[in-house]
Amino acid sequence: MDKGTLILLVDESSAGIDSMRRVLADRTHHFRVQRVADVPTALARILGGGVDVVLLNLPASASTESERLQPFLDFRKQNRAVPMLIPIVVLCGAADQSLAEAAVREGAADYLIRETYDADLLRVLRSVAAKTAAPPTRSNSTAVTGRGGRVLVFMGSKGGAGTTTVALNVAAALAENHRVILADFHPEAGSLAPYFQPHHSVLGLGDLLRAESDLETCLWPSKNLPGLRVLFGSRDLTVPLDLTPASVRSTLADLSGAADYVVIDAPISLAAANRALIEDAALLTLVVERDSLAVEAARLLLRAIDSWKAGRVSLAAVLVNRAALVYPLPLADIELQLAIPLLALIPPAADLCAAAQQAHSPLLSLDADNLPAIALRALSRAIAHQVPLLRSNLLSGAAPASSHGMSRVGVR
User: Terminus of the chain with fewer CB atoms < 10 Å: N or C?
Assistant: First the structure.
C-alpha cells in the first residue's frame, strides 16, 4: 500500500477519531487521519485534494432506515461530481448491519461494524485503499485481479444443482495446463471438504480469514493433479465464516496472485459478501437444472444481479441433467428466458458421480471417456476461451486454450 493514505472521518463526535488513531498508532507512516463533522465540510475537503478513503459514520438516532441512510446517499451523489471518486466506507452498529449492506448495494466500497472496529479497521482500509490505488481494468468478458489470475465463480440457481461437481471438474481440467486454485466460499458447510476428505489438520478459509495462517499454508495440494490446489471452507462447522465484502476482495486478490485460474464454489446468495465475489469475478457461471423451476430461479437471480448496474460482470450458464427427463425444457425456451450464453449441457450420470465422490476424485480423472467427463472437459475449454489468461501468465509458461463453442455432448 502507498504510504500516507489519508482517511477522512465524517463524524459529529470527536471520539471516533481517537479510537481510529489508537488502532493505527504503530502505522502512522502509512495512514493519516482527519475528521470533519458533516458532509458539506467533507466534500470541501475532498475538493482540496489528497483524500484517499472516506469513513462515514451513519447516524444511530433517526427513526427509519431510509433516513439513516440519507447522509450516505447525499454524499455519494455529490461525491460523483468530484473529478476523482473517493471510496466511501460506512460505519454503523452491529444491530444495523442490514443498513450497512444497503449502503454497499447503493455503492459504498465496504462497511465497518463498531463492535468489531479494532479488529476490522486495518483489513478494510488496506483492501479499499489498495483497490483504489490500482483499479482493475474490466471489460464485458474479463476482470483482472491480483497479479493476473482469473476468477471464475460457479453458483447454482437453486440447491442441489450439482454446482460443486461442475466447479471441481472444470478446475481439474484447467489444472492440466495451468496453476489452479479451487476455493469453497460457503460460510457454513461447504461440499469440497466432504468430497475430498482431507485430514482434519488441513486448514481452510476460516483460518485464512482469522489471519492464523498464510495462504500457502491453507492450500491443500491435490496428489493426482499437480496443478490443482484446494482452499476448503470452514473446517469447524460450529464457527460460521465471517465473510464481508472487504475480506472477500482481499482473499480474491491473494488467490489470484497465486494462480492462473481461481475457481470458486459459491453459495446461492445475493448478500453483500457474495456480491463482492461476483463483481470481482471474470465470469459468473450459473449451474441450472433443465426444469422450469430451476430456470425461473436463475432468471430471478440474473434480474437481481442486473439491478446492481454492475454491467461489467460476464455471465454464462451451464445446463445440468441430473436425471433423464421425459419432457426436458426446450433449449430455445431456456435461452430466451435467461438471455445469457449457454456454455454446456451436462448429461445425467448419477452412478459415475457417486463413484467419483467415493474415490474422492474428479469425475473426469476417474473415467475420461464417459459422456459427462467429455462435456465437462469441453466446458473448461469454452471457459478458458471466453476468459483467456493475461499475457503475463502466458509468458510464465501457461498454455493458451483453444477455441471451443457450446458443448452438447450426449444431448438429444
Answer: C
**32 vs 140: CA distance, rounded Å:** 37
pLDDT of res. 28: 61
d(CA 91, CA 103): 10
Q: In what order do the strands lie in the sheet containing 261-265?
A: 220-221, 228-231, 180-184, 261-265, 150-156, 283-289, 315-320, 342-346
Residue 55: exposed, middle, or buried by beta-carbon count in 10 A (0-12, 13-18, 19+)?
buried
Q: What is the pTM of this model?
A: 0.62
- Cα 121 from Cα 184, distance rounded (Å): 25
325: containing domain: 150-395
Q: Which residue has cell 476490522?
A: 120
Residue 10: φ, ψ to 5°: -105, 105
Do 77 and 41 fall within a single domain? yes
* Same domain (yes/no): 255, 305: yes
Is 403 a domain residue?
A: no
Listed in sequence order, the residues at least 6 apart from 177 whose beta carbon sits closer than 8 Å to its beta carbon are 227, 398, 399, 401
CATH number at residue 50: 3.40.50.2300
Q: Are residues 97 and 71 in the same domain?
A: yes
The Cα–Cα gap between 45 and 76 comes to: 15
According to the model, what pLDDT value does residue 55 have?
Answer: 87
Are both 267 and 301 inside the same structural domain? Answer: yes
Q: Per the domain annotation, does 65 fall within a domain?
A: yes
Q: Are residues 326 and 206 in the same domain?
A: yes
